[in-house]
Design brief:
This protein is an alpha/beta fold. Helix content is 71%, strand content 8%. The chain has 15 helices and five strands. Helix 2 packs antiparallel against helix 3 (46-64), helix 11 crosses helix 12 and helix 13 packs antiparallel against helix 14 (294-321). Mean pLDDT is 81; it is low at 365-370.
């Protein structure tokens, strides 16, 4: 006897927003009614095609099933705020369906890569034998292409990821031309580089998680917001300090390498303060939720260590460019590098302490059995 579950995922909860239905929707009759209701509410919704495809998969599997086999179909819905909130809702719903129906295997019907990104969550709870991807055939004409591009741009997720950055680029160019600020236009590659780097490092998911935690903890969010605001202000002070240093030394006809090193040396302390405020904000938010974020302490200590090493190295480099001779011997090593070594030792001790605490917590949560 085999019990097969055919499931389709509506990650952004179009079924709830447009048709007023909450998941999970279980059973062929209920799923068919949901598909009709969603199709009437929005005939252009691609999730409707995915639901009908799931019904077809259900019927095909049922035709080949034995007399003792069972087949069920369900719709799992997430949340219009796609991210942690929607994925948690889908995880809870699949657990409810598994507990009620008790399937041995599952077939997943998907209308795109966004739904398929939930495969690890589903596979951690039930074996997926097959993923059926629905591709809707569209008009190949120019009008059809234009229409679907316009419809895609109405997607809130696409607006945040593509339309908003493009709009900011044009706004920056417009301000630079209108007020004759060439440096503003020249800063565009830097801005785009920072944005692409943040996307590549997955900072969007980190920011989404932070916002979720802030919404669930108002007190911690207020303190963290103040600390992160101070971090932003410190970053602005770092930029202002670097700019003032550049103007002063450039007016004195200093060499460009000396100017650059002095700019870094002058703004470095404000950058470190900005990092520390940002880390403290994360620590406060985690502490208010009852979670120990020891790794942030380790990062804080290593940031301080890097700052101390960089400060000493920059001082020696600037003095060397100005003609001073540096002698590497015990008489100069301890005064110059002693504080850096102390910071490095403190960072290593913090790392070791955090590892011990985390292992102790893991051992306390582990069930060893009888």
């Amino acid at each position: 006897m085999t019990r097969t579950l055919v499931l389709v995922i509506d990650r952004d909860d179009d079924l709830g927003v447009k048709a007023g239905l909450r998941g999970p929707v279980v059973g062929r009759r209920n799923v068919l009614a949901a598909a009709l209701k969603l199709g009437i509410a929005d005939p252009e919704e691609s999730d409707t095609n995915a639901i009908f495809a799931a019904l077809r998969q259900h019927d095909l599997i049922l035709e080949e099933a034995g007399p003792e086999d069972a087949v069920e179909v369900t719709i799992l819905t997430g949340d219009e705020r796609v991210g942690v909130r929607s994925d948690r809702a889908i995880a809870l719903q699949i657990e409810d369906v598994i507990e009620t129906f008790g399937p041995d295997r599952a077939v997943m019907v998907s209308d795109g890569a966004e739904d398929e990104s939930l495969l690890p969550i589903i596979q951690s709870r039930i074996a997926i034998d097959h993923v059926h991807r629905v591709v809707v055939r569209q008009s190949k004409g120019l009008e059809g292409t234009y229409y679907y591009i316009v419809k895609a741009l109405d997607d809130p997720a696409l607006q945040r990821r593509i339309v908003l950055p493009i709009a900011l680029v044009f706004v920056t160019i417009g301000i630079g031309i209108a007020f004759k600020q060439a440096w503003l236009i020249g800063a565009l590659p830097l801005i785009l580089g920072i944005y692409l780097m943040a996307r590549g490092l997955g900072m969007e998911a980190v920011f989404s998680r932070i916002v979720t935690e802030m919404n669930s903890n108002t007190d911690g969010a207020m303190v963290s917001t103040v600390l992160w605001s101070m971090s932003f202000i410190s970053g602005l002070l770092a930029a202002a300090t670097a700019w003032d240093t550049y103007q002063d030394l450039f007016a004195q006809n200093e060499a460009m390498n000396i100017i650059i090193l002095t700019m870094i040396d002058g703004s470095l302390q404000w950058l470190i303060i900005a990092f520390l405020f940002a880390i403290l904000g994360g620590l406060v938010l985690g502490a208010r939720r009852g979670r120990f974020r020891g790794r942030l302490l380790v990062v804080m200590m290593f940031v301080l260590t890097i700052w101390e090493f960089s400060r000493t190295a920059l001082t020696i480099a600037i003095d060397g460019l100005n003609g001073a001779n540096y002698t590497f011997d015990p008489n100069t090593f301890i005064p110059d590098w002693g504080a850096s070594l102390l910071f490095l030792t403190g960072a290593w001790l913090t790392w070791r302490t955090v590892r011990v605490v985390e292992r102790r917590d893991e051992d306390g949560k582990r069930f060893h059995g009888v």
